[in-house]
Amino acid sequence: MQTAKPIELNGKPAAGGKFPLICTPLTGRTRDQILAEVKVVLGKKPDILEWRVDFFDGIANATEVINVATAIKQAAGNMPLLFTRRSIREGGEKIALTEDEVISLYKAVCESRQVDLVDFEMSNHPAHIALVREASKANDIKLILSFHNFSSTPGSKTLKQRFLQADQLGADIAKVAVMSRNLDDVLTLLSATLAASRTLRIPLISISMGPYGSLTRLFGWAFGSALTFAVGANRSAPGQVPIEDLNTVLAILQKSMNGE
Questions:
Q1: Which residues are catalytic?
Q2: In this structure, which topology does domain 18-257 adopt according to CATH?
Q3: From residue 219, how far is each of 100, 110, 126, 229, 250 by CA, in Å?
Q4: Is the pTM of this model over 0.85?
Q5: Angle at CA 222, nearest 5°, toward 212 and 244?
């Protein structure tokens, strides 16, 4: 039933080829809060941790950021870590950094090799995207190029263009996340996901946010989305469901779709 490529890390499909991967966010404001989240989340056995560094009070200190990333990795063992600064224009927290300083932070984090993936938005300046692409590639870190719309779901043509844009900009993984206001919006995203999964050269992630969007988090993988986000301790976006509920639904759907 799978139509998309799995996400690969270190030359092999992540989590032994599991599809979809389950990623849980870390949104603590302090080092202690973050590590407490890690402890809670690890017991729920996600496949990837995402550190939303825009929530972190110490984001302006690159050394402190790297130290926390190192502590997360030490606590998480072999579990991959995704590093994300979500911009305020795409639903993130306000931070005390210029965009040039954000690029310097991404470069430092990549050079530390304490993360396995980084997420950067396609709405950023092309020169900044190129710099993050260069830093991630030089350090064998996978780059997710993402697009978020927290107010609506664009048309299918636009969504397909966003997936393609990520590929053309050199992403290792393309991500599109949009707000669904009704079931028609959910269908629009799923249709665009299926079409992109059949043509894109790279793995993709697609998400509808909001109450209706929770449907895509539960079965978007059947349309080609290689990763879904679930709550381990705290939500980082509207519509995320608890990892326990997600695992239950995934098991039922995959068993049924395999004809068992």
A1: 148, 175
A2: TIM Barrel (3.20.20)
A3: 38, 32, 33, 12, 7
A4: yes
A5: 65
